[in-house]
Every structure is written in C-alpha cells, then in structure tokens.
Amino acid sequence: MKLAGRCAIISGANQGFGLEVAKHFVQEGANVMLCARNATTLKEAQQKLQALAAPGVTVFAKQTDISKIAEVDALIAEAVAEMGKIDILVANAGVYGTKGPIEEIDWQEWSDAIDINLKGTVLQCRAVLPHFKKQQYGKIIILSGGGATKPMPFLSAYAASKAAVVRFAETLADEVANFGIDVNTVAPGALNTRLLTEVLDAGPEKVGQAFYDQSLKQQEKGGTPLETGASLCSFLAAGESDGITGKLISAVWDPWKKFPELAAELKQSDIYTLRRIVPEDRGLSWEDIS
C-alpha cells in the first residue's frame, strides 16, 4: 500500500491503460478521481474500481474534456473538494487523431489532436500546480509514446504532440524543481488498446503499410501487458521515486526499479531525455572535412 493516503487525478481513466493505472493506484491505497469524456464508461470504471478498493479508499469520477480549460478547472476544484488534496496527476488522456499524408488530412481533426494531446496535458498540469506548490510536493506523470522518439509517418499529429509533451515535461521539471514537484513522462510500451484497433480499422492506406504490418504483429503477439506501464506509474507516484524528475522513462526497456539507487547520477545527467544527436555521438568526426 505504498500510495496509502495519497490522492490522484487520472485522465482518460475509463478504459485501457488509464483504467489499469487507476486499478494499480486503488490497490496501492490511493484515493482517485477519474476523468474521461464518455460518461457511461466512466461510471462503469468507477464502480468496478470501487469494488476493488480497500476500506477507506474512495473512487470519484467526473466527466471532463481535458482540452477545455473551464472543464479542467472544474475537475481540479471538485477533486480538491472531494479528496481534500491532490498529490498526483496522471495526464493519460490522448488520441491518435487524423491519419494520412499531411497534405490530405482534415486540418480541424489534426488541430483537435493537438488540443487534446498537447494543450490538454498542459492545461491539466497548469491547473494542479498551485496546489502542488502550496504543499511543496507533487507528482506529475505524463503519458508519452512511440511518437516522441521516432518519426511516425501518416500519424503526424500524434507524433508531434507526443514529442512536444516530453519537452514540455522536461521544461516544467526545471521550472518547478524548487517546489518538491517531480515531472516525468512514461512510454508504456506497445499496448493492445483501442488505439491499436483504430490503426487496424484505418488500414494501410491511411497509416502506411509498414505501421499497419507492425500493428498486425503486435495484435497477434498480445503487445506489452498494461500492468507493466501501470507499475512504472505507481513507482513514479510513490515516495520511493522522490527527486527523479525531467525524464522520459520506458516501462519496458529502462531499469526503473533501480532508479532510487541511481537518483544522484540521474539528477546530474541528461540520460532519458530528448537531445540532438551530433556526429561525435556516433563515433564520427566531421570537423576536419574540408
């Protein structure tokens, strides 16, 4: 029960990965406020999680569109009123958005994806920061993805927004470093959720043959278990990760369970961050080329 007594907001928590994170938090003793756009599935998630909760642990829910500033502000206000405080924010809500060549996609759909994935993430962080600063403590966990570290042809809104939230998290981590607030992004792995189904339904004409084939293989193999990334989120939400901040962490590939032992080294390093690659990083020297 390493999250006992803590209070968390989790967006996009009505299904998939967000629901799995909420399940882990509840089982670790945290009170949680779930939010999502779909009221029906949100209510079902709330009931399911409350049934799993230990005595004294409460699951709240509020329908919220995280791209709307008034709705995000109302969510934070209700969370504080119901739970008494907020210790953790998991900014999980996100979409792939429109798919296809950039010159052919619907511009409004492309912009809507940016509004949800990037601006919605920033709005959530912006709204909780006054509470975190007042209590001189807080945990912000932002969901990233493959788009942050490699090109994703035909999914440009998703890729651009996910890269942007990682740099935002790095920037925010420095901005709030003196307030005891940790800000990290999480890459949970290749998940078999609604987003995978969405890609397969779109077909190779929209998402490209290579990504479509990759997604088919992922579906067949089962993908990364949801619990892998959810366990990382539990770690980042708990006191054992205090001081680890400004990092993009892979649930699958990085030795995050050892991070408490490596905290001092991580603090002084740009490991697990987005950085420009120069020739010397690849063993090349181009300075002498005339």
Give the tags:
290 residues, alpha/beta, Rossmann fold, seven-stranded parallel beta sheet, 7 strands, globular
Short structural description:
With 290 residues, the chain is α/β, with parallel strands linked by helices. Helices cover 47% and strands 12% of the residues.
Contiguous uncertain segments of 5+ residues: none
CATH class of the largest domain: Alpha Beta
Named CATH topology of the largest domain:
Rossmann fold
In total, the number of domains comes to 2
Could you say which structural class the secondary elements and strand pairing correspond to? alpha/beta
Second CATH tier, the architecture of the largest domain:
3-Layer(aba) Sandwich
Strand order of the largest sheet: 3-2-1-4-5-6-7
Which band does the percent of strand residues land in? 5-15%
Rg of Cα set: 19 Å
Q: Strand tally, please?
A: 7
The number of distinct helices, counting runs of at least 4 residues, comes to 10
Q: What is the distance, rounded to the nearest whole angstrom, between the alpha carbons of the first and last residues?
A: 63 Å
Largest sheet, described in full? 7 strands, parallel
Within CATH, the superfamily of the largest domain carries the name NAD(P)-binding Rossmann-like Domain
Write down the secondary-structure element order. EHEHEHEHEHEHHHHEH
Binned, the helix content reads 40-55%
